[in-house]
Amino acid sequence: MKSICVFAGSNDGVAPEYREQAARLGEHIARRGLRLIYGGSSFGLMGTAANAALASGGEVTGIMPTALFRREIVHEGLTEFIGVKDMHERKATMHRMADGFIALPGGIGTFEELFEVLCWAQIGLHSKPVGLLNVNGYYNPLMELIRHSVQEGFAGRTHLNLIMLEEDAEELVKKMSSHDALSLQRTGDAENV
């Protein structure tokens, strides 16, 4: 693994733990010698993770549609910045460049990015690891919804195995770095999800 794409909110959220864990995530990605790939903003948890990775000597690539340049402040201190034409190209570029994905707490945009890579994994378009940094139990309701979809027959139990859920940034990066797609699909960790 050489890079991790981080999906995150362009806001900070209400709890200070969100920013703290975003910073820890960026720091641990850099310490493992991985490149952080993200949406390119200097705001919110996105900017916090990027700044922490840079401060820890890491490389950071930001990818942003040109239409957002006016609304979101482009992070000007990145290792690499890629301007793209739209959100579809942004996500395709992130997917192409990343060896794994981690979602920090965020809003609808974060959910949309997360579910796209989960859907692609479900149908076999990739076997890259997907992790949720479950700060303050943020993703508990989402995991309950996914479990509900399994109980109601709309998803298979093995789909739970596509998600690594951790409360600690360092532990999640460690798990992502040692990811084995085949063993995860066979045995999974669904009981702990």
Automatic annotation (TrEMBL):
Keyword Hydrolase included in the entry's annotation: yes
Pfam families named in the record: Lysine_decarbox
Top-level division of the source organism's lineage: Bacteria
EC number: 3.2.2.n1
InterPro entries from the UniProt entry: LOG, LOG_fam
Keywords annotated in UniProt: Cytokinin biosynthesis, Hydrolase
Family: Belongs to the LOG family.
PANTHER family registered for this protein in UniProt: LOG FAMILY PROTEIN YJL055W
Name the UniProt record assigns to this protein: Cytokinin riboside 5'-monophosphate phosphoribohydrolase
